[in-house]
Amino acid sequence: MDNTPARDPLAIAGRTFHSRLLTGTGKFKDLDETRRATEAAGAQIVTVAIRRTNIGQNPGEPNLLDVLPPERYTILPNTAGCYTAEDAVRTCRLARELLDGHNLVKLEVLGDQRTLYPDVVQTLKAAELLVADGFDVMVYTSDDPILARQLEQIGCCAVMPLAAPIGSGLGIQNRYTLLEIIENAKVPIIVDAGVGTASDAAIAMELGCDGVLMNTAIASAKDPVLMASAMRKAVEAGREAFLAGRIPRKRYASASSPVDGLIA
């Protein structure tokens, strides 16, 4: 079977993508670096914090869409900075107006400014409201398998559990709860938050995640464009390793060559 990205697409809300690496657009030094890093990552879906990024709401200011045009990229408005369901819903509706009816959004409702952990009660409330309003909701959440199932049942088109706190770079700290979510999900599971380097992205994909979303790990690297390229390769390698199926772990060595018929 051909498992190249083109033959192994990521499907979200009826749309298919050959890249399983989703990238953010914040924290880069300028729009040119944003463009170059996004290209190096091979990303097709890029997240945009509507409250922090100009995509046309501020005429006369640099516009992100000039360097990442919607004709080439799927713009994923997110509700970063929202702490209530009401604010999140309002932000998504603003994004829909700015993007001419675009209904694919990333929902995040934060509960704490220090850790940026999600407020799961407000997240559930906002998800229900947005799905009822016709949005395709990709939702950032904790790594709680029960909550992930509830968000799927509400109608979210992708569930995005954290691997560690946003921007921490701690890597995959919760592989067993992630596995529980992955094994029971019928929608894409995309790790969102915590990735620090390429090996973290590969581990997430090897676990069976459908994709990885990252911003800080790329934008805050010493060389963001080079790190974006590394992340692209790591996500692709991790996906291939998952599809290939790793060997069982064993306590002791086993010969890699047959021993039958050896000359005494």
UniProtKB/TrEMBL annotation:
Alphabetical list of HAMAP family matching this protein: ThiG
Q: Which family does it belong to?
A: Belongs to the ThiG family.
Q: Name one GO molecular function term.
A: thiazole synthase activity
How would you summarize the oligomeric state and partners of this protein?
Answer: Homotetramer. Forms heterodimers with either ThiH or ThiS.
Where does the UniProt annotation locate this protein? Cytoplasm
**Chloroplast is among the record's keywords:** no
For binding 1-deoxy-D-xylulose 5-phosphate, which residues are annotated in this chain's numbering?
167, 193-194, 215-216
The protein here is known as: Thiazole synthase
Taxonomic lineage from the root? Bacteria, Pseudomonadati, Pseudomonadota, Gammaproteobacteria, Lysobacterales
Q: Name the Pfam families for this protein.
A: ThiG (PF05690)
Keyword Cytoplasm: yes or no? yes
Query: What catalytic activity is recorded?
Result: [ThiS sulfur-carrier protein]-C-terminal-Gly-aminoethanethioate + 2-iminoacetate + 1-deoxy-D-xylulose 5-phosphate = [ThiS sulfur-carrier protein]-C-terminal Gly-Gly + 2-[(2R,5Z)-2-carboxy-4-methylthiazol-5(2H)-ylidene]ethyl phosphate + 2 H2O + H(+)
- In terms of superkingdom, the source organism counts as Bacteria
InterPro entries the record matches: Aldolase_TIM, Thiazole_synthase_ThiG, ThiG
Summarizing the function annotation, the protein's role is: Catalyzes the rearrangement of 1-deoxy-D-xylulose 5-phosphate (DXP) to produce the thiazole phosphate moiety of thiamine. Sulfur is provided by the thiocarboxylate moiety of the carrier protein ThiS. In vitro, sulfur can be provided by H(2)S.
Pathway it acts in? Cofactor biosynthesis; thiamine diphosphate biosynthesis
| The Thiazole synthase ThiG domain, residue ranges | 12-258
Keywords noted in UniProt: Cytoplasm, Schiff base, Thiamine biosynthesis, Transferase
Which residues are the active-site ones? 106
Entry EC no(s): 2.8.1.10
